[in-house]
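Researcher: I'd like a candidate sequence for this fold, 281 residues long. If you have to choose between options at a position, lean toward the conservative one.
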Protein backbone atom coordinates (compact mmCIF):
# COMPACT_ATOMS: atom_id res chain seq x y z
CA UNK A 1 0.00 0.00 0.00
CA UNK A 2 2.81 2.42 0.89
CA UNK A 3 4.90 1.55 -2.18
CA UNK A 4 1.87 1.88 -4.46
CA UNK A 5 0.97 5.24 -2.92
CA UNK A 6 4.52 6.54 -3.33
CA UNK A 7 4.52 5.48 -7.00
CA UNK A 8 1.14 7.16 -7.56
CA UNK A 9 2.30 10.40 -5.92
CA UNK A 10 5.54 10.48 -7.91
CA UNK A 11 3.60 9.94 -11.14
CA UNK A 12 1.18 12.72 -10.09
CA UNK A 13 -1.77 10.43 -10.74
CA UNK A 14 -3.64 12.21 -7.95
CA UNK A 15 -4.14 15.86 -8.90
CA UNK A 16 -5.35 17.33 -5.60
CA UNK A 17 -2.69 18.07 -2.96
CA UNK A 18 -5.24 17.50 -0.18
CA UNK A 19 -6.16 14.10 -1.60
CA UNK A 20 -2.44 13.26 -1.84
CA UNK A 21 -2.01 14.07 1.87
CA UNK A 22 -4.99 11.88 2.79
CA UNK A 23 -3.85 8.92 0.67
CA UNK A 24 -0.32 9.11 2.04
CA UNK A 25 -1.55 9.25 5.63
CA UNK A 26 -3.92 6.33 5.17
CA UNK A 27 -1.21 4.23 3.50
CA UNK A 28 0.68 4.12 6.81
CA UNK A 29 -2.06 1.77 8.06
CA UNK A 30 -0.08 -0.94 6.25
CA UNK A 31 2.26 -0.97 9.27
CA UNK A 32 -0.60 -2.20 11.46
CA UNK A 33 -0.46 -5.60 9.71
CA UNK A 34 3.27 -6.05 10.23
CA UNK A 35 4.81 -7.93 13.15
CA UNK A 36 7.23 -6.13 15.47
CA UNK A 37 9.09 -7.41 18.50
CA UNK A 38 9.73 -4.03 20.12
CA UNK A 39 8.29 -0.51 20.05
CA UNK A 40 11.64 0.79 18.80
CA UNK A 41 11.41 -1.51 15.77
CA UNK A 42 7.90 -0.28 15.02
CA UNK A 43 8.89 3.38 15.38
CA UNK A 44 11.95 2.97 13.13
CA UNK A 45 9.76 1.45 10.44
CA UNK A 46 7.22 4.25 10.83
CA UNK A 47 9.89 6.94 10.55
CA UNK A 48 11.44 5.26 7.51
CA UNK A 49 8.16 4.98 5.63
CA UNK A 50 7.05 8.46 6.68
CA UNK A 51 10.28 9.82 5.20
CA UNK A 52 9.72 7.91 1.96
CA UNK A 53 6.21 9.34 1.68
CA UNK A 54 7.36 12.92 2.34
CA UNK A 55 10.13 12.65 -0.24
CA UNK A 56 7.71 11.28 -2.85
CA UNK A 57 6.62 14.88 -3.48
CA UNK A 58 8.70 17.55 -1.72
CA UNK A 59 6.52 20.32 -3.16
CA UNK A 60 3.34 19.37 -1.26
CA UNK A 61 3.12 21.24 2.04
CA UNK A 62 -0.12 19.45 2.99
CA UNK A 63 1.59 16.08 2.54
CA UNK A 64 4.60 17.21 4.56
CA UNK A 65 2.44 18.53 7.41
CA UNK A 66 0.17 15.48 7.56
CA UNK A 67 2.98 12.93 7.70
CA UNK A 68 4.96 15.01 10.20
CA UNK A 69 1.91 15.16 12.45
CA UNK A 70 1.63 11.36 12.38
CA UNK A 71 5.28 11.01 13.40
CA UNK A 72 4.99 13.60 16.18
CA UNK A 73 1.86 11.97 17.58
CA UNK A 74 3.12 8.37 17.56
CA UNK A 75 6.89 8.19 17.98
CA UNK A 76 7.89 8.13 21.65
CA UNK A 77 4.31 8.11 22.91
CA UNK A 78 3.72 4.38 23.62
CA UNK A 79 5.45 1.68 25.65
CA UNK A 80 4.10 -1.39 23.84
CA UNK A 81 3.76 -2.36 20.20
CA UNK A 82 0.00 -2.74 20.66
CA UNK A 83 -0.21 0.71 22.19
CA UNK A 84 1.85 2.24 19.39
CA UNK A 85 -0.34 0.62 16.74
CA UNK A 86 -3.48 1.87 18.42
CA UNK A 87 -2.00 5.36 18.58
CA UNK A 88 -1.16 5.14 14.86
CA UNK A 89 -4.72 4.06 14.07
CA UNK A 90 -6.21 6.96 16.04
CA UNK A 91 -3.75 9.47 14.59
CA UNK A 92 -4.40 8.46 10.98
CA UNK A 93 -8.13 9.00 11.45
CA UNK A 94 -7.60 12.33 13.21
CA UNK A 95 -5.15 13.68 10.61
CA UNK A 96 -7.38 12.63 7.71
CA UNK A 97 -10.40 14.25 9.37
CA UNK A 98 -8.38 17.43 9.96
CA UNK A 99 -7.39 17.64 6.28
CA UNK A 100 -10.94 17.03 5.09
CA UNK A 101 -12.46 19.45 7.61
CA UNK A 102 -10.00 22.27 6.89
CA UNK A 103 -10.50 21.87 3.15
CA UNK A 104 -14.29 22.03 3.53
CA UNK A 105 -14.05 25.05 5.83
CA UNK A 106 -11.79 26.88 3.36
CA UNK A 107 -14.23 26.15 0.54
CA UNK A 108 -17.14 27.39 2.65
CA UNK A 109 -15.29 30.62 3.44
CA UNK A 110 -14.55 31.13 -0.25
CA UNK A 111 -18.15 30.40 -1.27
CA UNK A 112 -19.36 33.21 0.99
CA UNK A 113 -17.15 35.67 -0.94
CA UNK A 114 -18.56 34.65 -4.32
CA UNK A 115 -21.51 36.82 -5.34
CA UNK A 116 -24.56 35.75 -7.29
CA UNK A 117 -24.03 36.39 -11.01
CA UNK A 118 -20.22 36.49 -10.84
CA UNK A 119 -18.03 35.29 -13.66
CA UNK A 120 -14.95 33.42 -12.44
CA UNK A 121 -11.81 32.10 -14.08
CA UNK A 122 -10.14 29.00 -12.64
CA UNK A 123 -6.95 27.21 -13.64
CA UNK A 124 -5.90 23.56 -13.72
CA UNK A 125 -7.66 21.25 -11.20
CA UNK A 126 -8.31 21.97 -7.53
CA UNK A 127 -10.88 20.07 -5.49
CA UNK A 128 -11.05 22.97 -3.02
CA UNK A 129 -11.83 25.45 -5.81
CA UNK A 130 -14.48 23.09 -7.18
CA UNK A 131 -16.01 22.67 -3.72
CA UNK A 132 -16.06 26.46 -3.29
CA UNK A 133 -17.97 26.90 -6.56
CA UNK A 134 -20.33 24.02 -5.85
CA UNK A 135 -21.08 25.33 -2.36
CA UNK A 136 -21.85 28.79 -3.77
CA UNK A 137 -24.07 27.32 -6.48
CA UNK A 138 -25.92 25.09 -4.02
CA UNK A 139 -26.76 28.17 -1.98
CA UNK A 140 -28.67 29.47 -5.01
CA UNK A 141 -26.02 31.59 -6.73
CA UNK A 142 -25.80 31.52 -10.53
CA UNK A 143 -22.23 31.58 -11.83
CA UNK A 144 -20.31 31.61 -15.07
CA UNK A 145 -16.95 29.87 -14.83
CA UNK A 146 -14.13 29.89 -17.35
CA UNK A 147 -11.46 27.22 -16.97
CA UNK A 148 -8.11 27.13 -18.72
CA UNK A 149 -7.11 23.92 -20.46
CA UNK A 150 -3.93 23.76 -18.33
CA UNK A 151 -1.44 22.23 -20.69
CA UNK A 152 0.51 20.06 -20.98
CA UNK A 153 -1.58 17.68 -18.85
CA UNK A 154 -4.86 19.39 -19.78
CA UNK A 155 -6.29 18.95 -16.30
CA UNK A 156 -8.62 21.83 -17.05
CA UNK A 157 -10.69 19.35 -19.02
CA UNK A 158 -11.31 17.39 -15.82
CA UNK A 159 -12.33 20.62 -14.10
CA UNK A 160 -14.66 21.53 -16.95
CA UNK A 161 -16.43 18.17 -16.70
CA UNK A 162 -16.92 18.67 -12.96
CA UNK A 163 -18.27 22.19 -13.49
CA UNK A 164 -20.65 21.00 -16.21
CA UNK A 165 -22.30 18.66 -13.71
CA UNK A 166 -23.14 21.50 -11.31
CA UNK A 167 -26.55 23.17 -11.32
CA UNK A 168 -26.57 26.96 -11.81
CA UNK A 169 -23.00 26.91 -13.23
CA UNK A 170 -22.40 27.92 -16.86
CA UNK A 171 -19.03 26.34 -17.72
CA UNK A 172 -16.65 27.49 -20.47
CA UNK A 173 -13.18 26.21 -21.34
CA UNK A 174 -10.41 28.11 -23.13
CA UNK A 175 -6.85 27.27 -24.09
CA UNK A 176 -4.16 28.76 -21.83
CA UNK A 177 -3.19 31.37 -24.42
CA UNK A 178 -6.76 32.72 -24.38
CA UNK A 179 -6.68 33.65 -20.69
CA UNK A 180 -6.53 37.35 -21.56
CA UNK A 181 -9.60 36.99 -23.77
CA UNK A 182 -11.55 35.24 -21.01
CA UNK A 183 -10.40 37.54 -18.21
CA UNK A 184 -12.01 40.57 -19.81
CA UNK A 185 -15.39 39.06 -18.95
CA UNK A 186 -14.44 37.94 -15.43
CA UNK A 187 -15.08 39.40 -11.99
CA UNK A 188 -12.54 37.23 -10.17
CA UNK A 189 -9.78 34.66 -10.61
CA UNK A 190 -10.17 31.76 -8.17
CA UNK A 191 -7.12 29.53 -7.69
CA UNK A 192 -6.09 26.65 -5.48
CA UNK A 193 -2.95 26.52 -3.34
CA UNK A 194 -0.12 24.06 -3.53
CA UNK A 195 2.01 25.88 -0.97
CA UNK A 196 2.65 29.33 0.48
CA UNK A 197 6.02 29.74 2.13
CA UNK A 198 8.64 32.44 2.51
CA UNK A 199 6.49 35.09 0.84
CA UNK A 200 5.98 32.96 -2.28
CA UNK A 201 2.78 31.39 -3.54
CA UNK A 202 3.32 28.11 -5.41
CA UNK A 203 0.68 26.66 -7.69
CA UNK A 204 0.39 24.75 -10.97
CA UNK A 205 2.43 26.04 -13.88
CA UNK A 206 0.54 28.75 -15.74
CA UNK A 207 -0.49 30.47 -12.51
CA UNK A 208 2.13 33.24 -12.68
CA UNK A 209 1.24 34.57 -16.16
CA UNK A 210 -2.44 34.29 -15.23
CA UNK A 211 -1.95 36.37 -12.08
CA UNK A 212 0.15 38.97 -13.94
CA UNK A 213 -2.47 39.27 -16.69
CA UNK A 214 -5.30 39.56 -14.14
CA UNK A 215 -3.49 42.34 -12.28
CA UNK A 216 -2.88 44.21 -15.52
CA UNK A 217 -6.61 44.02 -16.29
CA UNK A 218 -7.65 44.91 -12.74
CA UNK A 219 -9.23 41.52 -12.01
CA UNK A 220 -8.84 40.47 -8.33
CA UNK A 221 -7.15 37.14 -7.63
CA UNK A 222 -8.27 34.87 -4.78
CA UNK A 223 -6.36 31.79 -3.64
CA UNK A 224 -8.19 29.21 -1.53
CA UNK A 225 -6.87 26.17 0.31
CA UNK A 226 -6.27 24.51 3.65
CA UNK A 227 -4.33 26.53 6.21
CA UNK A 228 -1.89 23.59 6.37
CA UNK A 229 -0.60 24.71 2.97
CA UNK A 230 0.85 27.83 4.56
CA UNK A 231 4.09 26.66 6.09
CA UNK A 232 7.30 28.35 7.18
CA UNK A 233 10.75 26.77 7.12
CA UNK A 234 9.76 24.64 4.15
CA UNK A 235 11.96 24.31 1.08
CA UNK A 236 9.70 24.01 -1.92
CA UNK A 237 11.12 21.84 -4.71
CA UNK A 238 9.67 22.16 -8.19
CA UNK A 239 9.05 19.02 -10.19
CA UNK A 240 10.06 18.60 -13.80
CA UNK A 241 7.98 16.07 -15.65
CA UNK A 242 8.73 13.99 -18.72
CA UNK A 243 9.35 15.97 -21.91
CA UNK A 244 7.02 13.61 -23.79
CA UNK A 245 4.08 15.45 -22.22
CA UNK A 246 5.12 18.52 -24.20
CA UNK A 247 6.33 16.90 -27.41
CA UNK A 248 5.87 13.24 -28.23
CA UNK A 249 8.57 13.19 -30.91
CA UNK A 250 12.07 14.12 -29.66
CA UNK A 251 13.66 17.06 -31.49
CA UNK A 252 17.40 17.25 -32.05
CA UNK A 253 19.17 20.17 -30.33
CA UNK A 254 16.05 21.20 -28.41
CA UNK A 255 15.88 20.95 -24.62
CA UNK A 256 12.27 20.58 -23.50
CA UNK A 257 11.56 21.81 -19.99
CA UNK A 258 8.34 20.78 -18.30
CA UNK A 259 8.02 22.32 -14.81
CA UNK A 260 4.97 21.43 -12.75
CA UNK A 261 4.67 24.61 -10.68
CA UNK A 262 4.98 28.39 -10.85
CA UNK A 263 6.35 30.69 -8.15
CA UNK A 264 4.35 33.88 -7.67
CA UNK A 265 5.06 36.60 -5.06
CA UNK A 266 2.25 36.25 -2.55
CA UNK A 267 1.78 40.03 -2.62
CA UNK A 268 0.39 39.72 -6.13
CA UNK A 269 -2.59 37.80 -4.73
CA UNK A 270 -5.45 39.99 -3.51
CA UNK A 271 -7.07 37.55 -1.08
CA UNK A 272 -5.95 34.27 0.54
CA UNK A 273 -8.78 32.20 2.01
CA UNK A 274 -8.17 29.22 4.29
CA UNK A 275 -10.09 27.42 7.01
CA UNK A 276 -8.62 30.02 9.37
CA UNK A 277 -10.41 32.86 7.60
CA UNK A 278 -9.89 35.52 4.94
CA UNK A 279 -6.67 37.49 4.54
CA UNK A 280 -6.67 40.62 2.40
CA UNK A 281 -3.19 41.26 0.99
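Model: Candidate sequence:
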Amino acid sequence: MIDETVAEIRAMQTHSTSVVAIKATRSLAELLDRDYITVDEFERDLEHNAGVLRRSNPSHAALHNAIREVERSVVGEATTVEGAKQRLTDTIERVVEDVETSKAAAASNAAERIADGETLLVHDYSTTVLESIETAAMSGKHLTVYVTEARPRTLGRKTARALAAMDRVDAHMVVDGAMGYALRDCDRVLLGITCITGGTYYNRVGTFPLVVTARELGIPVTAVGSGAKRIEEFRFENEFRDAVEVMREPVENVTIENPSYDATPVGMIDVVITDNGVEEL
